[in-house]
Amino acid sequence: MPSQKALIRRPSPRLAEGLVTYIEREPVDAELAMRQWEAYVEALAAHGWETIEVDPEDDCPDSVFVEDTVVVFRNVALIARPGAESRREETAGVEEAVARLGCSVNWVWEPGTLEGGDVLKIGDTVYVGRGGRTNAAGIQQLRAAFEPLGARVVAVPVSKVLHLKSAVTALPDGTVIGHEPLVDTPSLFPRFLSVPEESGAHVVQLGGGKLLMAASAPKTAELFADLGHEPVLVDISEFEKLEGCVTCLSVRVRDLYA
Ligand SMILES: NC(=O)NCCC[C@H](N)C(=O)O
User: Fold this and answer.
1) Which of 58, 70, 55, 40 is closest to 238 using CA atoms?
2) Which of the following is catalytic: 103, 163, 202, 229?
3) Does residue 10 register a pLDDT over 80?
4) How close is the Cα of 1 to the center of ligand 1, in Å?
5) How far, in Å, CA of 120 to CA of 159, rounded?
6) By the 8 A CB rule, do 139 and 128 touch?
7) Please, which pLDDT band fits residue 143 given cuts at 50, 70 and 90?
8) How far is the C-alpha of 120 from the C-alpha of 127, rounded, in Å?
């Protein structure tokens, strides 16, 4: 039985102070956010994922977006160096968690910056977004960490959204999906499918053709169902107000030594 683990991190009591960059700030309902986070974690567990809680980081408003703090390829965890300075304290707890999982740990160093939301893995291809949070030095360090392990690192520009994975993610067959007005260069991807909603671009592959998606993308969910996938919808409205999406609330780790 293949191992499927997902790191998650409980929302900080200061969640409402999280960063917003490309959208207007809206008030966040902290209690609703907690219920939505619990439902998200339950959805992962219900589909066979063992969820592992990283120690909370209550002083960091954005710490629930745990995906940004680390990138795992094979058995190596590359600890990010967030482009957002207010997020740099978040990495210590994640470092401990991935070390406990048995990962070999590596780090992005100054002057590099890199956030996990900018890294999209499709098989051995690792797309990395050069945008507001990840710089050229960060990309070079990602190459140095993962190319010796067999990764093919492809750098892509990101100028319209926060992270690469705010613009694109992938279906289980490797097709890259994105809401075209927000994707800098769709032609960089061998197979690209445009979706009707911004949040429809974000899916977490749960396995068995199931796709975890935001309830705010019903038309895209219909499109995916029509293509033979099984959307599983979760309401993450309070996290979307902080530019979060379904991908950034967990770090999925499969078969570390495969
Ligand atoms: N990977 C992601 O999409 N992360 C979302 C991070 C949102 C957070 N408010 C931030 O600006 O860093």
Assistant:
1) 40
2) 163
3) yes
4) 33
5) 16
6) yes
7) very high
8) 5
- 248 given a catalytic annotation: yes
Which amino acid belongs to residue 65? F
- Find out whether 70 and 104 touch, Cβ atoms under 8 Å: no
Q: Closest Cα to residue 228, out of 158, 157, 191, 173? A: 173
**Residues 6+ away with beta carbon under 8 Å from 100:** none
Determine the Cα–Cα distance for residues 173 and 192; give it in Å rounded to an integer: 11
User: What residue owns the CA closest to ligand 1's atom 1?
Assistant: 117
**ipTM surpassing 0.95:** yes
The mean pLDDT of 38-51, rounded to a whole number, is 98
Segment 174-198 mean pLDDT: 98
Mean pLDDT (the chain) is 97
Write down the pLDDT at residue 221.
Answer: 98
Q: Which residues contact 12 (CB under 8 A, 6 or more apart)?
A: 56, 57, 58, 59, 60, 61, 62, 63, 64
Catalytic (active site) residue 47 = no
Residue 251, CA atoms < 13 Å, CB-side half-sphere: 32
* Sign of the CA dihedral with 170 first, then 174, 180, and 186 last: positive
Ligand 1 atom at minimum distance from 248 CA: 1
Q: Compute the average pLDDT of residues 9-33.
A: 98
